[in-house]
Write a structure and sequence with these properties.
Mean pLDDT: 95
Structural class: alpha/beta
Low-confidence stretches: none
Strand content: 15-25%
CATH class of the largest domain: Alpha Beta
Order of helices and strands: EHEEHEEHHHEHEHEHHEHEHEHEHEHHH
Strand order of the largest sheet: 3-2-1-4-5-6-7
CATH architecture of the largest domain: 3-Layer(aba) Sandwich
Helix content: 40-55%
């Protein structure tokens, strides 16, 4: 089976990019030739993969994305004319792919909540992105959809009436290294020493490339509202780089800069989760949230917003899911509940560790390749 994976932009730290890379690796392990079509590439690639960088046209991101879809279809037609039988898997929205990996929620459903129909019709960005989404989800399209949470499928079907038989569920697919290791206590101590965390302090982590998108500003504001006796015993570690300046300015304004560590983009997220006492993830929008199940797999207590697709796992594990619409008061109350008494987090960690042993957090890439092997001609 010849596979073509199309992704507009690859970089090592994004959630979508990690899923893409794991599927690419799984295909290679099974002996399937893989060609990757991309517009931007940062980092290494498996040596057996054929990477082709496509040139896109346009001055805006949405114009470049539409151009990328056209270039992908053009390249695939050339390959097929050359006698290559292949399956095209798209990791961004554009028409003509055999499979689409749905990392994002339904744009049409979400945009309609925020904007009028006239605004959506006149705004070039929304007009273009909605057209690309419709090309994939329309009942007339033939693209099969990998989906990762039920809310995604329900939103897509509500808007586009996409037939049920075109949807294929994939379980979470985090790295096996996120399972709690036998030497977790030693590794926890080592990482806490590296980030200069006193053994008596409780470490709160938030992980995400876009800090504001993941709610770091919400966490900073809620933390600043806590009683001083709780604040003094805690530190926040922010692992991400986008919108860092905005978060720094907020921490300065609220006078808690000495209690917030800005760690930037990280390659050591599993180690950070071992070092932490609590993950807080009050994201504004999160189609899934792989980092949530990474934390649960480590036995780390989690508090997240109800906007997270994987909030269902957080809820099932007995951890905290904040109601939507988001309220700063709800987050502050949750933090007080979690941090006022040290025994609370210890009990939650024990419960989370037990839950993590009952759930499959790891097999997404294998499940996707099983489906591709079964469904591809």
């Amino acid at each position: 089976m010849n596979l073509v994976f199309a992704i507009y932009s690859y970089f090592p730290y994004g959630g979508l990019q990690k899923d893409f890379f794991r599927m690419m690796e799984e295909a290679g392990k099974r002996g399937h030739p893989v060609t990757v079509l991309a517009a931007e590439w940062e980092g290494e690639k498996p040596p057996e993969v054929d990477l082709i960088l496509l040139k896109t046209k346009g001055l805006t991101n949405h114009a470049k994305m539409a151009s990328f879809g056209r270039e992908v279809r053009k390249k695939v037609r050339e390959m097929r004319k050359g006698g290559v039988s292949l399956t095209l898997v798209a990791f961004n929205r554009f028409g003509g792919a055999d499979f689409y990996f749905a990392a994002d929620n339904c744009l049409a459903e979400r945009a309609a909540r925020k904007h009028s129909k006239l605004n959506l019709a006149l705004n070039p960005r929304y007009r273009t992105m909605l057209k690309l989404e419709e090309e994939v989800l329309s009942p007339k399209a033939k693209t099969k959809i990998f989906y990762i949470v039920d809310t995604q499928k329900k939103e897509y079907q509500k808007i586009y009436q996409t037939p049920e038989e075109r949807f294929y569920y994939l379980p979470p697919g985090i790295d096996r290294e996120c399972a709690l290791p036998e030497d977790h206590l030693l590794r926890r101590e080592k990482k806490r020493n590296e980030v200069l965390i006193d053994p008596e302090l409780r470490l709160i982590v938030l992980v995400g490339a876009n800090l504001v998108g993941k709610g770091a500003d919400r966490l900073i504001a809620a933390f600043a509202a806590l009683p001083q006796k709780i604040q003094r015993k805690c530190r926040i570690f922010l692992a991400g780089s986008v919108a860092e300046k905005k978060c720094r300015l907020l921490a300065e304004k609220l006078k808690i800069t000495d209690r917030v560590i800005f760690g930037g983009a990280r390659k050591d997220v599993p180690e950070l989760l071992l070092a932490a006492d609590l993950m807080v993830h009050p994201a504004r929008e999160e189609a899934a949230g792989a980092v949530l199940v990474e934390a649960l797999a480590m036995g780390l207590p989690v508090a997240c917003s109800g906007a997270c697709g994987f909030a269902s796992f957080v809820r099932e594990s007995g951890n905290i899911v904040l109601p939507e619409p988001f309220s700063p008061q709800d987050l502050s109350a949750a933090l007080i509940t979690l941090l006022a008494d040290p025994s609370t987090l210890r009990k939650m960690r024990k419960r989370t560790m037990a839950y993590s042993k009952t759930v499959d957090f790891y097999s997404r890439a294998a499940a996707a390749l099983d489906i591709l092997e079964r469904e591809s001609i």
